[in-house]
Amino acid sequence: xxxxxxxxxxxxxxxxxxxxxxxxxxxxxxxxxxxxxxxxxxxxxxxxxxxxxxxxxxxxxxxxxxxxxxxxxxxxxxxxxxxxxxxxxxxxxxxxxxxxxxxxxxxxxxxxxxxxxxxxxxxxxxxxxxxxxxxxxxxxxxxxxxxxxxxxxxxxxxxxxxxxxxxxxxxxxxxxxxxxxxxxxxxxxxxxxxxxxxxxxxxxxxxxxxxxxxxxxxxxxxxxxxxxxxxxxxxxxxxxxxxxxxxxxxxxxxxxxxxxxxxxxxxxxxxxxxxxxxxxxxxxxxxxxxxxxx
Length: 294
Prior knowledge:
294 residues, mainly alpha, MetI-like fold, two-stranded antiparallel sheet, 15 helices, flat
């Protein structure tokens, strides 16, 4: 009897050690992965505050400050370049593209999901295939369209062109959400006296809010980082976005303003990362549910 008790106790302790070891290994792997993911960002923060003498001397430790940190390169970025203009242009284009995308993709996705009958699914797939066309094949004909409309050197060129990329994928995502919502909800609202538009606005749209968040994040981030169209349509510094303005302003021939480049990356990444993490759950829900429902 005593031997059996000792055996059970040893097995219990062994199982506990395995659990502790497994949990420690899991945390170690997660911490290592987190550090590797954050390391480029941490290095960028260190680099943006380094003096030139500290950055370009090979003998110095590249991962820490060998000389006193300085704010000179951040000041140069904010006050001696058009960085704030690039930020303003990016925000204007991003919000405008989001509004256009939602204004078109929401009713179109609802129509294809609810009113499209048999051809709605095929039409939705056809619209989604437009998103798969590489931008490198489209920027030449689109540049001709922009020139004919006399929108070159204007933010309107980007506001008109970017929705051609964002609307197809946004419609595809929202169609999945609309298909997952029972028709009975809006029909009951119509029985209570609402019109179809009122029923959709009051009952259906709140249920597809995660999909709307996914569309907003997707459309804004694409507008912020897209490079080919922004570089082709706008050459003037006053109408450039961050994606084209920062590299053209801070890379002059063979001279790279590394610290200011890293400062621009950090100042742009921090607010986007905070906003993205704030809506992370809804963003993931939007892309996963919208992709598999229906």
